[in-house]
Amino acid sequence: MLFTIALFLLYIQPTVPQTVLCYSSFSLQHGTCGDVLGEVPRDDCCMNPNYGYQEQGQPCRSCRYASWTEWSSWGACSVTCTEGVRQRRRACYGIGKCQDKYKIGNHQTEPCVDKSCCPENGGWSEWSEWSACSVTCQRGVQIRKRTCTEPAPKCGGFCVGDSEESEACSTGIVCPTHGGWSSWGNWGPCSGTCHPEGFLAPEQQRQRTCTNPPPSTVPRGNDCPGARIDTQFCNGIPFCPVDGNWGSWSKPSDCSVTCGVGRQVHRRTCDNPPPKHGGQPCHGEDTKRVLCTIPVHCPADGHWSEWGEWTFCKPVNPRAINCKNRIGRRNRKRDCLGRDYGGKPCPVEEEPVEFSICYDIDNCKSGPSELIAKAFWSEWSKWSYCEPNCEETAKQTREKTCTPDLSKYSDQNIELFAGTPDIVCPQTEETKQTRACLNVPKC
After folding, report:
1. What predicted TM-score, i.e. pTM, was given to this entire model?
2. Which pLDDT belongs to residue 15?
3. Distance CA 375, CA 354 (A)
4. 239 vs 289: which has the higher pLDDT
5. How far apart are CA 422 and CA 311, in angstroms?
6. Which of 87, 198, 227, 397 is 20 to 30 Å from the Cα of 61, by its Cα?
7. Of residues 27, 77, 79, 24, the one with CA closest to residue 53
8. What is the C-alpha to C-alpha distance for residues 37 and 25, in angstroms, rounded to an integer?
9. What pairs with residue 355 in β-bridges?
10. What is the structure's pLDDT at 204?
11. Following DSSP, what letter does each residue of 18-53 receive, concatenated?
12. 3-state class of 387 per DSSP?
């Protein structure tokens, strides 16, 4: 009996809302959260669709209605010369799943050529004769050169090694050595530890020696010009320091948001007293922030879904249009997704319904007495993206399609024709071609 009561009490206990780490921003470019607010219930955090949240051990997620980001720019070619591939990506961020009617996915790969040829290094010519010595007395330098011409490099190549060599040379003649100053030594200590207000500052000195090099005796070199000792006033000696101390905390500010989770701020000033004459500043923060929640959902703006399929091509009057040179009507629709809590509707300049005229050619046959006189193969389509995106077996394809001859219709715009005609194209050797994508990166 006691066991049954315990189970009943466990069953009726209220569930605790799931808490998450809430952030006030979510980057659609990098898929990361920024400006952490703190731990709150997930529903409170996502009252603002611009926020992001993170569950324990999980990547950050966006609070918005799920939708795709824009495609990234194409990345660099996988090789720097000859044919490779480049890739671009998009990401689905938000609550729910993104629409992908055409199964494009989040990744596209296509061939690229940055440079049609690869670099070939060249070869060096023979060394030239040594040049004359660079000085007229004592020791100097002589050089020799060679050129990268045997053969010359191709396609941005180069020769490995140096184009110039040098070696020491001697004239056998002694030059006089003139004296040179060594570097100044460090400044000596000041004659006082602080600057008496209204009087000259204490002095300090530094010295140097005529030893870099010392003047020669035979032949006689010149002594170093200028003074051996340098003197200056000790500037910047501090007055006696006064350390700073914090004033009182201010009252909390208003909540930083009008909906969802935000912050309140307390501030204080280092003015009780302020630091003076090099005294220590106040230790610690001048600002502290606490979470606040406005229990109101933030507006979520709407965005258009992908277009739905076209409806059947229907007559505009009782006359039949199937396999006739008569115009019908059709439409397709899209939905405004994600709008909530007073957010902006989808752009009014973009209609939810699109209408089009059409010709109904569903199951129409071809023949001399028919509107579709014959069928023929189209030109090759463009090469597709590489599939799969990151395997050595990636390939591209292109195709020809069996196309009806619509020249007897008033308008030959292929986008106006609805349905699938019953046509047969003449035999041909191939209607589909495949080629390999080169230098595809590994997954």
Report:
1. 0.60
2. 57
3. 30
4. 289
5. 20
6. 87
7. 24
8. 10
9. 331
10. 86
11. PEEEEEEEEETTTTEEEEEEEEEEHHHHTTSTT-EE
12. strand
